[in-house]
Amino acid sequence: MRQLGIPGAWVHEPKVIPDSRGSFHEWFRAPDFTTATGRPLRLAQANCSVSARGTLRGVHFADVPPGQAKYVKCLSGAVLDVVVDVRLGSPTFGEWEAVRLDDQDHSAVFLSEGLGHAFLALTDLATVVYLCSEGYAPAREHGVHPLDPALGIGWPSGSAPLLSDKDAAAPTLEEARERGLLPSYEECVAFYQEL
Question: For a Cys staple, 55 with which of 51, 111, 114, 151, CB 3.0–4.6 Å?
C-alpha cells in the first residue's frame, strides 16, 4: 500500500496475474493493511453501489468518533475516486486527491475516519464496493457539495454530473465549517491512536 498526500489515506495497487481464463489479484490482505496503515480494518458493513456514467456520489463523511473508515474498490467499469480532507486543523485541510479505480488495474483506496469521500462514474455502469468500519447512521452522516468551487475538485469535464437531491443540497466546505459539521483533526488523530 502506498500512502497518499493526505494523511490517513492510502492506495493499494495489487499485482494482477492474467492468464487465458482472465485474471487474479488479492484486493485485501489484513497483515499488509495493518503494516501499511498501523491499524487493523474493523469491518462492520459492506456496501455495493452501481452507478450510471456521470453519477457523482459524495462528498460524504461521518462524525468522529466513531466516524466511518472506508476501503473502496471498483469491481466493474471505472470511477474517479476522491479523498477530501475535511478535518479542521489538518495540515491538508481542504485539499483533495483523486485515484482512478477500475476493473483493469484493480487498485483500492483506504480512507480513515473523518476524511471525505466521493466518486464519479466514468463508464456506462460502474460497480463500486466498500468495506466500512462502522454501519450507516443517518444522524452522524454529513456531506460537502462536490462541486464547491473553493474545493476545486478536478472532475472530468463533459456533461453535468448526476447528483442525488441530498448531495445537490449539501453545504459548501465553508458552510459546513460554520455549521459545526466538520470533524476536528486533533480528535481524529486521538481516535486513530486508540485503534
Answer: 51
Residue type, 120: L
C-alpha 77/C-alpha 189 separation (Å) is 34
Q: Which of 12, 106, 130, 185 is catalytic?
A: 130
Q: Tell me if residue 130 is catalytic.
A: yes
Q: Please report, for the chain, the start and end positions of each structural domain, with discontinuous segments joined by +.
A: 2-194
User: How much is the pTM?
Assistant: 0.95
pLDDT of 137-193, one tens digit each?
999 999 999 999 999 999 998 878 999 999 999 999 999 999 999 999 999 999 999
Longest CA span, the chain? 56
Instruction: Provide the 3-class DSSP secondary structure of residue 45.
Output: strand
Domain 2-194 has CATH 2.60.120.1060: no
DSSP state of 72: E
Given the residues 60, 106, 117, 145, the one annotated as active site: 60
Please calculate the CA angle 157-160-166 and round it to the nearest 5 degrees: 125
